[in-house]
């Protein structure tokens, strides 16, 4: 079964750090670009970051640029999101998603169930 | 990186057709044919229903169809069914090398 499973969420104080992981299975992980997308409680979807197949091209939303870093380990079939200098407005459910084809397509056909990040003192 | 503009809500009766619009700019929807639509039921992850403006992933009903004219994309759902009641989001790649979503549209099946 094709799936992705996020982990690493939790409660963190403002200014703190957290690393999210996304374990992929059922498909050739190294052949697909990946995205992180978040959804604040009761709000819409917000794209956070994208990464090319080999990890050489990274893309970020302005709201997280300079604070978040996306990476992947194709040998472990795992995508990561390192989040630093966290703010209250980063509180959200974070989804990992597989992209159909090139990253510009933005079409995400496999989504996890998400991991919750809460930034609060 | 302004969000794409969608109506907050639309409604229709079973069997009817509805259309949800998604308005962007010449830097996103108007530039690329990389518009996708997602369906999200409460408490669930989003599901891809159309991509590249009008293509459908395998397994998605042909009652869902996408289109684009200029900087406005649209999703039409024909033969409305109760299970179509959900939130719908459009997205587009932008010339700033980012992905932007619409604010979401809540579809109510009357």
The total beta strand count of chain A reads 11
Radius of gyration of chain A over all CA atoms, rounded: 13 Å
**What proportion strand of chain A?**
over 45%
The pLDDT mean of chain A sits at 96
Share of helical residues of chain A: under 10%
- Count every beta strand of chain B, where a strand is a DSSP E run of 2 or more residues: 9
Largest sheet of chain A, in brief, is: 7 strands, mixed
Structural overview:
The complex is a heterodimer of chains A (121) and B (110). Chain A has 121 residues and is mainly β. Chain A has strands spanning 3-7, 10-12, 18-25, 34-39, 45-51, 58-60, 68-73, 78-83, 92-99, 108-111, 115-119. Chain A is globular. Chain A starts with a strand and ends with a strand. In chain B, strands 1, 3, 4, 7, 8 and 9 form a six-stranded mixed beta sheet that branches. In chain B, strands 2-6-5 form a three-stranded antiparallel beta sheet, with no helix packed on it. Helix content of chain B is 0%, strand content 44%. Chain B starts with 8 loop residues before the first strand and ends with a strand. The interface between A and B is medium-sized, with 24 and 27 residues.
Which features does this protein show?
heterodimer; A: 121 residues; mainly beta; 7-stranded mixed sheet; 4-stranded antiparallel sheet; B: 110 residues; 6-stranded mixed sheet; 3-stranded antiparallel sheet; 44% strand
Q: What is shown here, in short?
A:
The complex is a heterodimer of chains A (about 120) and B (about 110). With about 120 residues, chain A is an all-beta fold. Chain A is about 0% helix and about 50% strand.
Give the helix/strand layout.
The complex is a heterodimer of chains A (121) and B (110).
Chain A: E1 3-7, E2 10-12, E3 18-25, E4 34-39, E5 45-51, E6 58-60, E7 68-73, E8 78-83, E9 92-99, E10 108-111, E11 115-119
Parallel strand pairs in A: 2-11
Antiparallel strand pairs in A: 1-3, 3-8, 4-5, 4-9, 5-6, 7-8, 9-10, 9-11
Chain B: E1 9-12, E2 18-23, E3 35-40, E4 47-50, E5 64-69, E6 72-77, E7 86-93, E8 99-101, E9 105-109
